[in-house]
Amino acid sequence: MPGARRLASSLLKPFFMKDLKYFITCLEESNIPYLYPLLKELADKGVILSELSPSLTRDEWGRVPAESFLISDNNAGAEFARLNNIGYAVYEPEGRKSLELFRDAQCVFQGFDEVRADFVEKLYQRHEGIPWTILETERTVVRELSLSDIDDLFELYEDKEIKRYIPPLLPREEEAEFQKAYIEKMYGFFGYGYWLVFSKADGALIGRAGLSHRAGFDELELGYLFSGKYRKKGIATEVCRGILKYARDILGQESLMSCIREDNKASIAFIEKMGFKQIDSFESENRNMLRFTVKL
Question: In the predicted model, what is the mean pLDDT of residues 82-100?
Fold first, then answer.
């Protein structure tokens, strides 16, 4: 195993960085196909690789820092992860039936041929409640919302054009509860949703954009809104082009739709500039909505 070492006392000191620091394997099976390239990629990124023997007893277990993630094919590894409150994934080759032991696992792998280091890092981030960075453009960073963003979100929604076309947020405590559930159910289950857009220049929250489900339709819907002073600068185009590419290359989508109020002329002009074509219309909350689609 490349660069691996046994769990040692140096693992026990506290860390405060949020990046993945340690990747621990606790595996009964040896010579697992395609695992070596994943471990090498993690090591090349500076992640320290460690091994935990499944035969160790609970009294022999040490403590590990929170910046750790574990892969296991046995109950001992899962119990070790729970004791240390770290995220873990399960290796369960096709044909083995032991999922009931690992209901709290972040992921179940049947093989590692398509698993990359950045995906392991995302599993770690999800367990730690760290919002995923979805993409970067020349001027922006698009990432998931966290509960620490709520105040900035309310400030964004004070924009008069946003108020004109977008439903208001809930009262603050209700909105916080809604977003908490959204993070868990939408981001956590689907891996996508409505994200936040930040300026690289000053770190300010300048908009929201992302992908969502609309009842009655199969295609994912592209949605977006931007603060007034960041409109007409090409930023929306920059961000939405990045999201279209993400939808195609990462999520495997073949097309997207966007639904816009027929009186929102600026948004209609923008979505047509993005290559979307109107295909029909429908009523929603007593307003006529135009539906546009694009092939990716």
Answer: 82
pLDDT at 291 over 50: yes
In CATH, the number for domain 133-295 is 3.40.630.30
> What is the DSSP pairing of strand 277-284 with strand 287-295?
antiparallel
User: Alpha-carbon distance 222 to 213, whole Å?
Assistant: 9
All structural domains of the chain with their residue ranges? 5-128, 133-295
SS (H, E, C) 76-137: HHHHHHHHHCCEEEEECCCCCCCHHHHCCCCEEECCCCCCCHHHHHHHHHHHHCCCCEEEEC
Which pLDDT tens digit goes with each residue over 15-67?
333 689 999 999 998 889 899 999 999 999 999 999 999 998 888 888 898 89
Please tell me the CATH superfamily of domain 5-128, with its number.
Answer: HAD superfamily/HAD-like (3.40.50.1000)
